[in-house]
Amino acid sequence: MKNLKMLPETRSPAPRLPRVGFTLIELLVVIAIIAILAAMLLPALTRARAKTQGIYCMNNTKQMALSLTMYCGDNSDRFPPNHDGGNAGKAAGSECWVAGWLDAAAYTTDNTNVNMLVKPQIYPYGAYLGPYIKNPAAFKCPADKSINPGGSREARVRSLSMNNYIGDRNTTRTWSGNQNKFKLYATTGAVKMPTMTFCFLDEREDSINDGWFASDPDTLYQIVDFPASYHGNAGGLSFLDGHSEVHKWRDSRTMPVLRAGQNLPLNQNYPGNQDIVWLAQRAAGVGAYP
Predict the structure, then answer these.
(1) For position 168, what pLDDT does the model report?
(2) Contact of 126 with 119, CB cutoff 8 Å
């Protein structure tokens, strides 16, 4: 039997697989689409965040108003002391609902000392609301990002101040120093319009110092301390009837440019500023102003 010559095995060429991946143009198109979507979503996310912070702010101011009501209920309807000055809440004769002097331009331990807010056993001439509201976070707007100047860069502990027209001061002194048209309220019963009288508000980080928010309704268009505008040109307040709100400021003079590390020049007169009129009316707690 003859040997058969073996022919080499022939194979059909393997099918060419399609190339996997994107071209440069395709990648650029995808990146551009993602960038467009991000640009569309970012404002919505920013608004949502601001709204959330506003809700937290209103919750804080409402809790502070509730703690004030509880304090008054336990103290014959008298408001807590509300003195001003660098020694407020630190010594006899300068008793204040909260202790401490905050400073935006200089390092100070008062900027970060939570005990001044909630520990009356440590600060017996301050921290009067500590037994009623034990969480120091309630004393600060969540949108306030101010820090202690200097190397530590710790967050400052307070943005809230109390209306200078309420408080047990054993005096009828108004900001102007005279017994003029508007009087201070030492007791809750003396307040004629609780819905129109604010008790706490968020004060600007470069304006806030003691816990006494100074208004001067006796002088038309006079702004002494400046309210905060942390919520899209709006600031948080709570009122003696227990409600809280975030109020929109309209005049740019109410919201001066923030200069980091500098305290704001206070006690200014801005003719025609309706924000000052609105605030003065609610400081003095009157239905008509001026």
Answers:
(1) 79
(2) no
